[in-house]
Amino acid sequence: MIAERAAFSAEDAHLRTFSQSVDHIQNLGANDIYNWFLASTSNPPVNSDGATVVQPPDLKLNLIYPCTAQHIAKYSAQGVRIVTETPTIYRDHIRPFMQEKRDAGRLNWVFNIIEGRTEQEDVIFREHSSKSSDNEDEGFLLLPDLNWDRKTIASLHLLGLVERRDIWSVRDLSKTHVPWLKTMRAKMLESTTKLFPQVEADQLKLYVHYQPTYYHFHVHVVHVMLEAGATQATGKALGLDNIIGQLEAMDREDASMQDVSLSYTVGEASELWQKIYEPLKNGTLNVSAAS
Amino acid sequence: MIAERAAFSAEDAHLRTFSQSVDHIQNLGANDIYNWFLASTSNPPVNSDGATVVQPPDLKLNLIYPCTAQHIAKYSAQGVRIVTETPTIYRDHIRPFMQEKRDAGRLNWVFNIIEGRTEQEDVIFREHSSKSSDNEDEGFLLLPDLNWDRKTIASLHLLGLVERRDIWSVRDLSKTHVPWLKTMRAKMLESTTKLFPQVEADQLKLYVHYQPTYYHFHVHVVHVMLEAGATQATGKALGLDNIIGQLEAMDREDASMQDVSLSYTVGEASELWQKIYEPLKNGTLNVSAAS
């Protein structure tokens, strides 16, 4: 017998009484406006002897209070579209969009971590670049991903942030970066397996997002047993090994990921859809002739 | 507040009493040894007025009875490894493995469908190749994937099987196939949106598996809202658009996917791991020097 959690009911009658049905609430932690709880929706059953059968909590609750309109938009169901970013669309529309986001200070939190000003207690590994040696560009640091509980090894999820600032996304990787990528990949695997000796290197999956949430190159390092959801899906995630393989197989020395078309999913509520891809689809924004 | 189902407890005490805690069992259907149910683990809570709050079922149960050792192996947790298939490993070990599987008659069910002998009631679209015209290689057919309920549009999942038999997997795609791939992609999108007019072409995600379950080229066509699980994960799924983009960006006219390294996940119980990758890791099987 295979037992799975059934889907939530989205019927009005259920949603109206949902808050009354939550009981046995346990606080797991809190950070600013974010709070986490375990809870049960119902009373424990009694067995044939009339004794109560203790049940583990069947609900995880995330409370954001007070929340903003952005929080509501982020968690609301939204339509999703597949778009194809050609080299020309990248050059004309996406690169300027990335520039705008970087200029708006969206990366300050990343630079704060890299420069040691904030969140240093979260940095579980750091290899500093050294301007004077031959590893000038090889600095990176590892942090636990926000979605990891920081203890379950089978759902290990780390973020590798590179120290260099010239690589905004996978688009900036070129064939000349292959040795750098291979070194960084090897060091990320080595440091993760040293920190978590229960894990072998071939149990770690490395991938990047395109589009990423922020335009500073970072690598997701996850345990292969981590349940694969939207974060690992084709249309969002690109395997780091396959990117290296793709760059290696390109013939021209100046070949780069800026030369390829990349397809990915965007939410209809996202700026990328509303400012770029929907106008391109409607013909109210144009793609210049490929040069 | 965001409410999610909490993880099941795998503690012995809970598992021992699990069968006693299942109640309000509803049969959803049955087919041979396979049976599906909804059920509740516990009693409905009472609200502040002492009234019972009706709860939807919180469990989905799949019962296979009687089951075989294969069923148990399939649903048992197995370790997973990441492997990197270089062009040399492909040529020396994987291609012969594929040949062996094809020779063993593993594709008879595919050829039966293509040749119209079985499962014709499942074929929802077919474009025949015609040897006499210019679309000799363009035949394909669309079937619902076994995991689709055949009605929920947001979880639409079709399989596109090509009629030509010379492409065993993504490894056989070369730069010269780009026009063929683009035509097939367009026809799959067009026929799917005609069959399901609620869906637009940019709401469909096309991907292939590597490694696939069987060595006859087939494309997964899914709705972008389908929950992304292991079938769409990096390390298993490759976006068809990105493969086309990768081939287009290769310079040599004879470039192909046989020239690149591909990394993917394999189960430790799989033949690929046991016969090829584990021996390669242990040094009991060798990789020849790249020629």
| Beta-strand content estimate of chain A | 15-25%
Protein chain pair with the most extensive contact, residues per chain: A-B, 84 and 83 residues
Cα Rg of chain A: 23 Å
SS content category of chain A: alpha+beta
Quaternary organization: homodimer
Shape of chain A: globular
Number of helices of chain A: 7
Cα(first) to Cα(last) distance of chain A is: 60 Å
Q: In which range does the helix fraction of chain A lie?
A: 25-40%
Describe the protein.
Two copies of one chain form a homodimer. The first copy, chain A, is of the alpha+beta class. The first copy, chain A, is built from seven helices and twelve strands. In chain A, the strands form three sheets. In chain A, strands 6-7-8-10-9-11 form a six-stranded antiparallel beta sheet. The first copy, chain A, has a three-stranded antiparallel beta sheet with strand order 2-3-4, with no helix packed on it. In chain A, a hairpin with a 2-residue loop joins strand 2 (23-31) and strand 3 (34-40). In chain A, helix 5 packs antiparallel against helix 6. In chain A, 29% of the residues are buried. The mean pLDDT of chain A is 88. Chains A and B meet through strand 1, helix 1, strand 4, strand 5 and strand 9 of A and strand 1, helix 1, strand 4, strand 5 and strand 9 of B.
List the helices and strands and how they pair.
Two copies of one chain form a homodimer.
Chain A: E1 2-5, H1 12-21, E2 23-31, E3 34-40, E4 59-64, H2 69-75, E5 80-85, H3 87-103, H4 108-114, E6 125-127, E7 140-144, E8 157-162, H5 178-195, E9 204-209, E10 218-223, E11 237-239, H6 240-248, E12 262-267, H7 271-282
Antiparallel strand pairs in A: 2-3, 3-4, 5-12, 6-7, 7-8, 8-10, 9-10, 9-11
Helix pairs in contact in A: 5-6
